[in-house]
Design a protein that fits this description.
heterodimer, A: 292 residues, alpha+beta, Alpha-Beta Plaits, four-stranded antiparallel beta sheet, 4 strands, B: alpha/beta, Rossmann fold
Chain lengths: 292, 260
């Protein structure tokens, strides 16, 4: 029966949208604003998460060799490190190179350090990903010939815990914001329902099924959700383009501002969120409305 | 289905207490055979509207049975309520027309929501408008019509899908006496065409003039049920008319006699 009435139902939904143009504008802009806020937040959380997840990658493991280690052994150790799983790069820095670098850095203030080179050879190792740095450092620590390993463990550990806090808090806050958005949409749709309670009442009295009564309103909810999401996506996209432009011009090297968010996925998620909240919002209000 | 409830409408020991504690109906028994025209009379608050609400399942009785067309609607599942409502046409004092749709659309609305479309829709809508005498006003909006015409439109909407039962709750409550009489004549015509009609009214003039079966409710119980009855047993002035005398407009109707 619903199928046979589809033209009428679509027509009703269209009539509702047109007749209550102001109401439609209200619910669409409500959705747009809520989703924009949610979008900005999600964007920032995503960005922050990606950034904190990436940071440990920039950490290196410095494995200082015993002073007694010969250069040949050092070279073979370097090769051995290179073969270890999870290693992206291993490079031998001889004590002479290190000393030169140090002195360059200190502008040859030999008065402070003397002429004797106190530095050992060291091997600099980079892990394939930040999370593996700690495990790798432990493995290297136990190898013969290695005197001491410095991997910035404390910093990495903190970063990883910060990243996980950001992730958890982000998820919780995003969930709360999404709930709030659904509630706002459901409220906006409740207003349109209330404005049309007379129609609904009459529909019930002449024997329309609840499914039949619901259909145009659900359609409206979906339209409001998708339209609102489209507006929100457009606004955010413009903001992102602007931001990218500014970053390229002024802050090329400031890595936290490089956009790490997968934009197509992000906008698809936002649109889906608009659709789902519109659908849920209208269904929740209808449920409460039709029960009365 | 039950052989005992073959009447088009059969209320058996119906009690209704609302959530706020008000006892609206107390052990009401009422049976209407197909084709009857019955007036339900009584003071405001005597339970007339509550009784009508039971029939199209706007409320459930606290106890008792409400048989409509062989079905106990007191025990009807929510999903089957729309099907029941298609068998029970309703007319209200305040018309309840959709203000932004034409009379034609208002009447057709009742068919559209039950899935009727196309030529069938036009045919039945026009027929219903014809029965109530509004064929030439079909394109008007409700506010462009008089009260009587609006009530005719409501009646057209109520009968457009040929329900076996028509309920009218104070259908003349907002109308002047002449128009009230026209509306009652229209309901009578629909009754003659085969629909069982139950009218709740405290319009004494109309009840007395039509001389149909009268069921009187008082504080939720049936206190009188007589064929060819009058509004009240004696000409006791009702609260509505007390102190004001008889509406002079009623005299216009003195010469009129309803003649089926």
């Amino acid at each position: 029966m619903i199928l046979k009435s589809l033209p009428f139902l679509f027509h009703e939904a269209w009539l509702n949208i047109r007749r209550q143009a102001l109401m439609t504008v209200a619910s669409v802009s409500t959705v747009a604003v809520s989703l924009s806020i949610l979008g900005i937040f999600l964007f920032l959380a995503w960005q922050l998460h990606a950034w904190t997840a990436e940071l440990p990658n920039q950490f290196e493991i410095h494995a200082f060799l015993r002073m007694t280690t010969s250069r040949a052994t050092a070279a073979s150790l370097t090769e051995q490190f290179r073969q270890m799983s999870g290693v992206r790069e291993a490079r031998l820095v001889t004590r002479e190179e290190a000393w030169d670098a140090w002195r360059r850095q200190q502008q040859n203030r030999t008065d402070l350090y003397g002429e004797e080179n106190p530095l050992p050879d060291k091997i600099v190792v980079k892990a394939e990903n930040g999370a593996r740095t700690l495990a790798l450092a432990d493995a290297i620590r136990n190898l013969p010939g290695v005197e001491r390993v410095n991997a910035g463990e404390e910093v990495i550990r903190r970063l990883i815990s910060v990243a996980s806090i950001v992730r958890t808090a982000g998820l919780i806050l995003a969930g709360l914001l999404a709930l709030g958005t659904a509630a706002i949409i459901s409220n906006a749709i409740r207003l349109t329902l209330f404005a049309r309670r007379r129609e609904i009442r009459i529909m019930q009295l002449v024997g329309a099924t609840n499914g039949f009564i619901r259909f145009p309103f659900i359609l409206e909810g979906i339209v409001a959700g998708v339209l609102g999401a489209t507006i929100a996506c457009s606004l955010l996209y413009l903001a992102v383009i602007y931001l990218q432009e500014r970053v390229r011009l002024n802050l090329t090297l400031f890595t936290p501002l490089h956009i790490r968010v997968d934009l197509p996925l992000f906008f698809a998620a936002l649109a889906a969120l608009g659709l789902v909240t519109g659908l849920l919002g209208s269904m929740i209000s209808l449920r409460r409305f039709l029960r009365a | 289905m039950s052989a005992n409830h073959s009447a088009v409408l059969d209320l058996v020991n119906v009690w209704l207490r609302y959530g706020n504690g008000v006892l609206a109906l107390q052990g009401v028994d009422l049976r209407l055979e197909a084709g009857e025209f019955v007036f339900l009379v009584g003071q405001t608050g005597s339970g007339k509207s509550s009784l009508l609400c039971l029939i199209n399942r706007e409320v459930r009785p606290t106890s008792g049975e409400v048989w409509v067309d062989g079905q106990d609607v007191a025990r009807l599942r929510a999903g089957h309520v729309p099907a029941l409502r298609r068998k029970v046409g309703v007319v209200y004092q305040d018309f309840r027309l959709l203000p932004d749709r034409t009379i034609w659309e208002n009447v057709a609305f009742a068919l559209r929501v039950i899935g009727v479309g196309g030529r069938e829709l036009s045919r039945r809508t026009e027929m219903a408008l014809d029965v109530v005498g509004l064929a030439d006003r079909a394109r008007a909006l409700p506010h462009q019509l008089s009260g009587g015409e609006q009530q005719r439109a409501t009646i057209a909407r109520a009968i457009v899908n040929h329900p076996p039962i028509l309920l009218a709750d104070e259908p003349t409550g907002n109308l002047d006496p002449d128009t009230s009489w026209e509306i009652i004549q229209l309901l009578n015509k629909i009754n003659i065409l085969g629909t069982t009609v139950l009218v709740a009214s405290h319009d004494q003039m109309i009840v007395d003039r039509l001389q149909k079966r009268v069921v009187e409710l008082d504080h939720g119980t049936v206190v009188r049920d007589e064929a060819g009855g009058r509004y009240a047993l004696q000409a006791v002035p009702t609260v509505r008319n007390s102190g004001q005398g008889r509406d002079p407009r009623l005299r216009v109707l003195d010469g009129l006699r309803y003649d089926p």
